[in-house]
Amino acid sequence: MDPGATVANDALLVQLVRGSLGKDAKTRELARPNVSSCKFVVTLHGCAREPEERRAIEEAVRRVPGVRDVMNKMRIAPLL
Length: 80
Hints:
CATH topology: Histidine-containing Protein, Chain: A
Radius of gyration: 12 Å
Mean pLDDT: 92
């Protein structure tokens, strides 16, 4: 998608975000968060093993064209 292009709706934006997480070298091997969007503000829910994973996911989402803001509600839950 052209970086200057606009995204038609929130449903399309959610699909773009999910796809970008699968393509990004820092996030493709991580557990995927639940993604929702309202008025182009993306909300992330789920668990990350450490703060760096949580941050990498948020940064990847912020780079998706059309994302106005990110509400990162992911919890840190290390594997036992």
